[in-house]
Amino acid sequence: DASPQSAQVQKYDKGIRVALADREAYPDDPNVRRKLVQALLDGHEYPVAFEEAQKLRELEPNSGKDLELLGHACFGLGLFDEAAACFNEARKLEPSSDSVWWLAYILNARGNTVQARHVLAAEVNKGNREWRIIKLLIDTTPSSEDQIRIIEAYHKSVPGDAEAALVGPDLHNGTYHRGY
């Protein structure tokens, strides 16, 4: 099959095979394990990625990045509470926009919008102006007046294309709307 999907699967398979061979040669090297977990996640091999991420956590229990990998494996398996716990702990160990965004995304998707908004607002108050953080903050804000205030406060600090993504398709006749 010469479809783009089969080429993608072959690419992932090769990446996984290489990462597995590296792990066999260097079983206690955390960087080799990280590459394997990432290859498994890229290939949607979540059960094996979960197992390998747990082993990686044993090698380096205080790594926020490794907790993020475990969180992605949990998310892929549908273990959303466990994924949120991983991302929450990861942001405490090594604060990153990725762990904050994923934690807030899961909280919001699970119906805990107030807590998601709190996590995002705390991140923005620390100075994070990454557009996906601000966009999710807007999406978790129920009042359109408050959404407009957020857009007005932060749209100039969001770079180039991200600014267009932040306000572009939702701006209608000069007013912000949710598209429904």
**What is the β-strand count?**
2
Give the helix proportion (percent range): over 70%
Enumerate how many helices there are, as a single number.
10
* Computed CA radius of gyration, to the nearest angstrom: 19 Å
What profile does the largest beta sheet have? 2 strands, antiparallel
Q: What class do helices, strands and sheet pairing give?
A: mainly alpha
The spatial strand order of the largest sheet comes to 1-2
- Spatial shape: elongated
Mean pLDDT: 81
| CA distance, first residue to last residue | 41 Å
**Approximately how much beta-strand content do the residues carry?**
under 5%
Order of helices and strands: HHHHHHHHHHEE
Q: Unreliable runs, pLDDT <50, ≥5 residues?
A: 160-180
Report on the structure:
The longest helix is centred in the first third of the chain and has 22 residues, at about 5-25. A two-stranded antiparallel sheet has the order 1-2. α8 packs antiparallel against α9 (about 145-155). The protein has helices at about 5-25, 30-40, 45-60, 65-75, 80-95, 95-110, 115-125, 130-140, 145-155, 160-165, and strands at about 170, 175. With about 180 residues, the protein is mostly helical. The termini are far apart. A hairpin with a 2-residue loop joins β1 (about 170) and β2.
Which keywords apply here?
180 residues; mainly alpha; two-stranded antiparallel sheet
